[in-house]
Amino acid sequence: MDAKTIEWIIFGPLIFGLILISWWAMGESHKRLDDPNDDRTVYLNRLRQILKLAPYGVFRVTIYRQSGNIHAEHQVTGSKEDALNTAIATFRRAGIDAVHVGANNETQLRIGRLYHDHRGRKEGKKIGKAHIALEQRMEAPASTPIPVPDLIPATLMEASEPSISIQNIGITCDCGQRSELAFAAIRNERVCEGCGKDATLTPVQIAQLEVAAEDAQREAMARYHAGETDIFVERKSKLAGDEPTTLTDQNIKFEAAKEAVEHLGLIKSGAIATIVGMMHGLAEHPRAIATAYRKDGAQLSRDEKKAAHIRANAFMSRQAYEDLTDKGKANPLNGHELTLLRAGFTENRYRRIRLHDETPDNIKDYFVGFEYQTHSSDCPFCKRVDGTIVQNAEVAILPSPDCVCETANYFVSAKMDWLKNIA
Predict the structure, then answer these.
(1) How far is Cα 86 from Cα 205, in angstroms, rounded to an integer?
(2) What distance, in Å, lies between the first and last C-alpha atoms of the chain?
(3) Domain membership of residue 246 as a residue range
């Protein structure tokens, strides 16, 4: 028996045992991923739900390589979600979709990849873990309404006790003729009494009025539950057309949903209000929200699902299927989710800028600009702007025409220079 045979007899079982242990550990990690009650090992899209960091503040986000060396370091001023997204963006670019969670409290979060990646000669340079630390706690910014141009009154609503009524909608034609329209009649064909032209509202304009009515109703009920009575909620805006619209706190959800519906072409324009309604629940992942929507209501029959190329155990209500365009029906289970994702990324960019607008002046003094963080090297827009810094007015909140990403999933975050005022 030669020396090599002896070495194999001695070390072979040990090596084989280590391989078995590694396989077992990987298997256990993936089992924990599928356990909704296990917060130690989670997919990236679940991190937001279990995040315990302080809601607002100045955060330091440090990304480490597998070797232990620092890969990148970021200073993020804003919400805890802003800080988390900075780390997640790096992990997604590295092809990591699930992590182990270590410390998770008000002052720090530690996450790391499930297992060491030994592939390739540069394994030490691969992303390994991230640490988010709270450096300065900040108060949550007050919600400051943005003035809305006093143009066309869209929806008037008053609430007295729990009952709510919607008053007639005042609409002014381009010719100057003003008329009133009952909310129940917004889908009816109309002719302007002044100029005689067709004044029938488009599906997008109908959706805009429906969204405004739901938003006003939501505000009225919130004020009622806070103890107010004889509540009058007014909404004024210009009906949607081809001209650019100034984004405000009141219209951002509608404009984001409208852009996503029109660009992707998966959902009919008459269902914009449905996407806006889903956006109010974006604390959950869009897939869960879209699934819940498809699950609600009368379902397609088994034969109808088969004809539509939908698996038998999938949820698809008749209303959800009716929302889809012919293009959307080619992949019916993804239409609402992809549209919601794109709209959600747009609103996220807007909210980040608004959060900065409400940042205390002593913090704003260190503001340099907004830094783009993108995920695609194949998209000409994302490749061009990744890592660049622009000022507020230059940020492409609505997806840039140059962005070919399906969900336009690029972020912006406030870039701070804490040594800026040091001589």
Answers:
(1) 36
(2) 76
(3) 153-250
Cα angle, residue 382 at apex, residues 376 and 385 outer, rounded to 5°: 140
User: What distances in angstroms separate CA 288 from CA 82, 259, 368, one per listed residue?
Assistant: 22, 22, 37
Dist CA 324 CA 328 (whole Å):
5
No. of helices (H) and no. of strands (E), the chain: 12, 14
Q: pLDDT tens digit string along 60-102? A: 999 998 888 888 888 888 888 888 888 888 888 888 878 888 8
**278: exposed, middle or buried (C-beta count within 10 Å: 0-12, 13-18, 19+)?**
buried
Domain edge (last residue) among 250, 273, 301: 250
231 closest CA partner among 153, 286, 330, 163: 163
Per residue in 313-327, is it b (16+ CB within 10 Å) or e — as a string?
eebbbeebbebbbee
Model-level pTM greater than 0.85?
no
Residues 56 and 160 in one domain: no
Nearest to 62 by CA among 122, 117, 123, 135: 135
